[in-house]
Specification:
With 280 residues, this protein is mostly helical. It is built from twelve helices and no strands. It comes from Debaryomyces hansenii (strain ATCC 36239 / CBS 767 / BCRC 21394 / JCM 1990 / NBRC 0083 / IGC 2968).
């Protein structure tokens, strides 16, 4: 499989060995060409650039959603508004039926849905064009400019999620489509939790900085994380003897006797009467 390089006309030569690259069986030549152009532009971005692109895409998504839903609501009520102007309300009489709140609700829904879809696409396209024009005036953001040109405005939300993720973990950036193999379809991608947010970071578990801390038990590390020292923890008596609240060892035989005496005491007055009646 041969790697294609960008040509003067902006196209990329496509590998011809379809047995090695399954993407050639799933994508059209134009789609594969677009994926290579996106990879070539995306690999030049650093984490800061990715964060800026994600922030700009989020702003575009908010504006698109706000304008789109506003247009949908306005067009949804458009048939009702026209009907109100054409047919003013009449006094309610037995012969005059009460008009519905929404005139032709199914038609209104279709008009509103169509307006939402069309407005979202047009607003997103306009926002992308404005962003590209603004980046062309900034020579320091040439890499971002190439990335915006390679993105499809129809998939703005997908690109937002991608750049938000790769800004935090650049290892999730897309790979070269020309090197994609059948084995790549079955690769396992593991995203380990952030050390700053994981509970082991707060407790100090698994982060032995020295041999003394590494020899501590997990409970000692938990005590240290909560402001205590292992020496302040209560000592466990040896030889299997349990300690009393005063810290003195107790005799198991005495404990059994005390337990039997506690169980023999009546819990209520009725229990005391029953015990008295059972005595000979």
């Amino acid at each position: 499989m041969t790697d294609g390089n960008p040509q003067d006309n902006g196209t990329v030569s496509v590998p011809t060995n379809q047995n090695d690259n399954p993407l050639l069986q799933k994508l059209t030549p134009s789609q594969f060409d677009a994926s290579i152009r996106f990879y070539e532009a995306d690999k030049k971005l650093n984490p800061e650039d990715r964060g800026e692109v994600a922030s700009d895409l989020q702003s575009i998504m908010y504006k698109t959603a706000f304008i789109g839903y506003g247009s949908a609501m306005g067009n949804f009520f458009l048939p009702t508004i026209i009907n109100r102007f054409q047919h003013p309300s009449l006094p309610s009489t037995p012969t005059n039926k009460i008009r519905p709140l929404i005139h032709k609700p199914f038609l209104s829904f279709l008009i509103g849905l169509t307006a939402l879809l069309v407005t979202n696409q047009q607003v997103a396209k306009y926002q992308f064009s404005q962003k590209i024009d603004s980046l062309e005036a900034e020579s320091s953001k040439k890499n971002q400019l190439e990335t915006w040109k390679a993105m499809d405005y129809h998939q703005a939300s997908l690109f937002f999620l991608y750049y938000r993720k790769t800004a935090e973990n650049p290892s999730f950036a897309v790979k070269d489509p020309r090197t994609f193999t059948e084995q790549s379809l079955h690769e396992v991608r593991y995203d380990p939790p952030s050390k700053d947010r994981h509970f082991t970071r707060a407790l100090g578990i698994g982060h032995e900085d020295n041999s003394e801390k590494g020899a501590m038990s997990h409970w000692d590390q938990i005590r240290i994380a909560n402001g205590f020292t292992p020496s302040q923890a209560p000592n466990t008596p040896e030889n299997g003897q349990e300690s009393s609240p005063s810290g003195l060892p107790t005799d198991p035989a005495n404990d059994n006797t005390n337990y039997e005496q506690e169980q023999a005491k009546p819990a209520t007055a009725w229990d005391a009467i029953r015990q008295q009646s059972r005595k000979p």
